[in-house]
Write a structure and sequence with these properties.
Helix content is 32%, strand content 24%. The chain is of the alpha/beta class.
Length: 336
């Protein structure tokens, strides 16, 4: 890869707004771009139901703009490229999501996201905006050891929370119930990622990190954060054989468990590669006596054109599997 990647943009300072304009123009049946830069549901959730808000740095599309809609989020608060949205912007998102039953602010655990979310909640309290709760979510086993889960990063496995929690709120669960469900899904989810080649920053075209042709990075974060270390590039089966056992051991997942599986395309992986990888995942789970209730394979949380993927498992019970089956209708994610 060259030191500077080609990007079809107009100017760096208009990337975010022009992307949001184009997205909203493409999917008016699902979303609306507000004058102050929020992505909201085109048809608001019924009154009396909990509103769900997510704020995140842009550059990871379709996360999270593609996950606003029926059975999903009510509002996405887009930040600048790879940067958390500001507290005041989050407060505007909370106000927009209110439907009379309170608002749950979902935070993917990264320092900037957490800090600005906490500032937003303090601002809501000062303004007298009541019934707002925050849930901090994490899943990446490479970023902190077992026993220190609260220090882990939020990565692709949060996909399960968005889907299941969105359905739960749509069904009329209370704010307290929604927060408890989000924590329950979080605590049953584990993720590990691998990078084959770096992505680039669309603001300047510069590569985010360097990686020799014959190496991969195990545990790479969504912003290029260092993972567990580098290994020699190898086959699809050998890669899954490195990644899946640590995931299974961390919860742990055991024989008799039922799980959801996510293979998230970090940017430029092909579907062919992902299906070959999934073949080995399915083999190992079967050998371990772990049954698969549902699988999602595709681009969810990307880092521009980074080549790599994240593997996530979520242990489910009957309630959670029913939420997985519930309908969802967003611009980039439609279910049932």
């Amino acid at each position: 890869m060259s030191a500077r990647a080609k990007k079809l943009i107009n100017t760096p300072h208009t990337i975010l707004h022009e992307m949001l304009e184009g997205f909203a123009a493409a999917y008016p049946q699902f979303v609306t771009l507000t004058p102050d830069g929020l992505i909201t549901r085109a048809v608001p959730k019924a009154a009396g139901k909990v509103g769900l808000v997510i704020g995140n740095g842009s550059g990871h599309e379709p996360a999270m703009i593609g996950f606003v809609g029926e059975g999903l989020f009510d509002v996405n608060v887009p930040g600048d490229i790879f940067a958390a949205p500001g507290a005041e912007h989050i407060v505007r998102g909370i106000k927009a999501a209110e439907r009379g039953a309170g608002v749950l602010l979902c935070v993917s655990h990264h320092a900037g996201d957490l800090l600005n979310a906490e500032l937003a909640l303090a601002r809501c309290a000062a303004l007298g905006i009541g019934d707002v709760e925050m849930v901090v979510l994490y899943d990446d086993i490479s970023s902190a050891p077992k026993g220190q889960e609260e220090e882990r990063r939020g990565t692709a496995g949060l996909f399960f929370t968005w889907k299941l929690l969105g359905a739960y709120a749509e069904m009329g669960a209370s704010l307290e119930e929604c927060k408890a469900m989000a924590e329950r899904i979080r605590d049953h989810t584990r993720t590990l990622a691998v990078a084959l080649t770096p992505g680039t920053n669309p603001l300047n075209g510069q590569v985010m990190f360097t990686l020799p042709e014959d190496e991969i990075e195990i545990g790479m974060g969504v912003h290029g954060e260092v993972g567990q270390g580098r290994r020699k590039f190898t086959t699809a089966d050998a890669t899954i054989d490195m990644m899946l056992p640590p995931i299974l051991d961390d919860l742990p997942f055991v024989a008799g468990d039922e799980v959801l599986v996510l293979l998230n395309n970090s940017g430029s992986m092909t579907q062919m590669e992902l299906f070959i990888l999934h073949r080995r995942v399915a083999q190992i789970l079967s050998e371990r006596g772990i049954s698969v209730y549902g699988t999602y394979i595709g681009a969810y949380a990307t880092t521009q054109e980074m080549a790599g993927f994240a593997l996530s498992l979520c242990k489910v019970d009957e309630t959670m599997s029913a939420l997985w089956d519930a309908p969802a209708r967003g611009a980039m994610f439609r279910w049932g």
